[in-house]
Every structure is written in C-alpha cells, then in structure tokens.
Design goal:
By secondary structure, this protein is mainly β. 12% of the residues lie in helices and 53% in strands. Strand 2 (33-39) and strand 3 form a beta hairpin.
C-alpha cells in the first residue's frame, strides 16, 4: 500500500516536471469568444463560450506585448511592431513600427489605438495609412 502511494506521488511529480507553462499576458472577450494572449510559447488561445469549446490557437512569431480584437482581426503588438492577424485565415498584415514598445492596443469601429510610450497613435482601419498622434502628457 505504501509503495503504491509512493509510485503515484512520483508519477504525479514526473508529469508536472515535464510540463511547460506559458506566461499569460492578457485576456479579452469579443462576442462569445474569450482570447488569451500568451508568451513563451507565443500564441493566442481562443475559447468559444457558446460552444463551450476551444478554437484553433493562433501562433505568433514574436513575443507579444499587447493585443485587441474586433470582428475581423486580432491586433498584436510585439515590442515596437504592430500587426493585424486575420481571424478568417490567420494571415498577418504589418501595420507599423512604433518608436517605443507598444504597451496597450484597443480599437473602435474605424480606428486602432496604440499606446507608443507617451503617445497615443490612432490608425485608420480602412487603409492603415491615415494616422493621428496625441501626446498623453
């Protein structure tokens, strides 16, 4: 009996020792889907609350620092780089390089808003070229 308990404890410890744990950076919900932003490994895990099931992960090529979601895209900051990742096919569209690490991203119906150091940058969703910069101080 005692040996069985020891075997079970050792088995449990070995299972836990071989697991790698990702760092959860941020969580957001859009419609009925919850998005979990992880680094190491760099990915976005999606959970559909209406279906009560996980959806295929979105793999990220760089370490994420911020993200936001709308109906069509996930906007991801990776230090100074900002990309839009299509929810339909996971294709990546480069938006811009910031002057500093991107620490926050949000979006409205027509714009993406990025915190670049002490500046808020608003980028038009229609062409990604029309931008406005606002000092936060």
């Amino acid at each position: 009996m005692k040996s069985r308990l020891i075997v079970l404890i050792l088995l449990g410890c070995s299972l836990l020792a071989n697991h790698s744990y990702a760092a959860l950076e941020d969580v957001t919900q859009h419609n009925n889907i919850v998005y979990f932003l992880y680094s190491t490994p760099n990915k976005i895990v999606r959970y559909d609350t209406s279906q009560k099931a996980f959806i295929e992960d979105i793999t990220l090529t760089k370490v994420p620092t911020a993200f936001s979601v709308d109906d069509n895209f996930v906007y991801v900051g990776s230090h100074r780089e900002v990309n839009a990742i299509s929810l339909a096919d996971s294709s990546t569209h480069f938006l811009r390089n910031a002057s500093n690490d991107v620490s926050a991203i949000t979006n409205s119906s027509q714009k993406i808003h990025i915190k670049d150091g002490n500046t808020l940058i608003s980028i038009s969703k229609s062409d990604y070229n029309d931008t406005n910069n606002f000092s936060l101080w």
